[in-house]
Amino acid sequence: MSPTAAQDSLLTGFDEFTATRASEPAWLQDSRARAAATFRAEGLPTTRHEEWRFTPVTGITDVPARPVATSAADARAIDGFLFPDFGGPQLVFVDGRFAPALSQAHALPAGLRVSSIGDLLGTDPDLLQRHLGAAIRFRQLGFTALNDAWFTDGLVIVAEANVVVESPIHVLYFSTGAGTSYPRTLVVAGANSQLSLVESFAGLDRPYVTNAITEVLSAEGAHVDHYKVNRESLEARHVSSTHLLLERASVFSTHNISLGGQLTRNDINATLDGEGIECTVNGLYLADGDRLVDNHTAIDHAKPHCHSYEIYKGVLDGSSRGVFNGKIFVRQDAQKTDAKQTNQVLLLSDDATIDTKPQLEIFADDVKCTHGATVGQLSEESLFYLRARGIGKDDARALLIHAFAEDIVERIRIDGVRRALEQVLLARLPIRE
């Protein structure tokens, strides 16, 4: 199959799909049609595109793109990806569709609305029309259009002004391996509201594709604490983009933990569109075998007196590959910007590779901006220090690797999530002579 034919196959059945959704509002039908036209014009990215230079999207076109019509999952498979003692609602979507029977409900405070897109289309479609897509300022070539065209459901969280949500919310997007899913998450945080959200992605041990979009609209003074945990099948392709539109004095933090997937591509685009914003973007990625993890972040300082902090750490083994591309834009009006960015990578084998590219584009003159990247292996000096105190070589290696990765995990404020990920790290990080 030619590359063009392969790309065309990703819209096979689109007319039939939209025909089954004829009851949707006209604005959504128009949006799907425009998205399909955009994809036909853009196609999938190739390594000739600068932003995808190190990331061939092989395997994407091998999986049917049309969303799975009906799906079901075994509760025992789901339970393994829910967090014990979480303390808040855990909502499950299977192959992109809400599965209430597999979800764990929880009392919600007044002023907080948590719903599926499917339900909102029936009860409040105007809310979706106002907010869906509003935070997307930078599109992920081809993939954003595919999600816009094919998505079937997703989670919407709306916090009214001054609402403080004590319990976190967990949404698990689970794939059965039957095809492609298009998860969609929309968070609308009203002025001075506070909430925490965990997004998980997981699936059965089969080849499948996840193409996800997350949007966060944070009004003045809102605090949003966000976590994204990728525990996809090691045969899965995971492509996602997170779009942040932050207003004056809002505080946002995200921790992006990538543990699974044959191919993982994470894009985070943040627009700091008001004064006094604080934005934290952290990440941890582990890969072995021939897996590939690609993290792209872009933080746009559009207004003065804003702060952004970014730390990404990677642990690569086998012949795995990592990519980190972090951009910080400081516009001419964004005086008194304070931005810090760091990428640190630990290579555990001679065949593991990383391409890292921190970037600063500064058009203001009164700013404090730093960036840096370090790539290395375990410190022989540190190993010697530990072994000199009676610690065996394997244990010394494990201690150093865990200390490196734990620096990101220990920043997770939700106890149940942090403990679960610590257990995953103990099981996944390699120990070898």
Can you give a write-up of this model?
This protein has 433 residues and is of the alpha/beta class. It is 22% helix and 36% strand. It contains 10 helices and 20 strands. The strands form 2 sheets. A 10-stranded mixed beta sheet has the order 2-1-5-8-10-12-14-16-18-20, covered by helices on one side. Strands 3, 4, 6, 7, 9, 11, 13, 15, 17 and 19 form a 10-stranded mixed beta sheet that branches. Strand 1 and strand 2 form a beta hairpin. Helix 8 crosses helix 9 and helix 9 packs antiparallel against helix 10. The termini are far apart. The model has no long low-confidence stretch (mean pLDDT 93).
Chart the SSEs and their pairings.
Elements: H1 3-9, H2 14-19, H3 26-42, H4 75-79, E1 90-94, E2 97-98, E3 112-116, H5 117-123, H6 125-131, H7 143-150, E4 155-159, E5 169-175, E6 180-181, E7 184-189, E8 194-203, E9 209-218, E10 223-231, E11 237-246, E12 251-258, E13 263-272, E14 278-287, E15 292-301, E16 307-316, E17 321-330, E18 338-347, E19 353-362, E20 368-376, H8 380-387, H9 393-409, H10 415-428
Parallel strand pairs: 1-5, 4-7, 5-8, 6-9, 7-9, 8-10, 9-11, 10-12, 11-13, 12-14, 13-15, 14-16, 15-17, 16-18, 17-19, 18-20
Antiparallel strand pairs: 1-2, 3-4
Helix pairs in contact: 3-7, 5-6, 8-9, 9-10
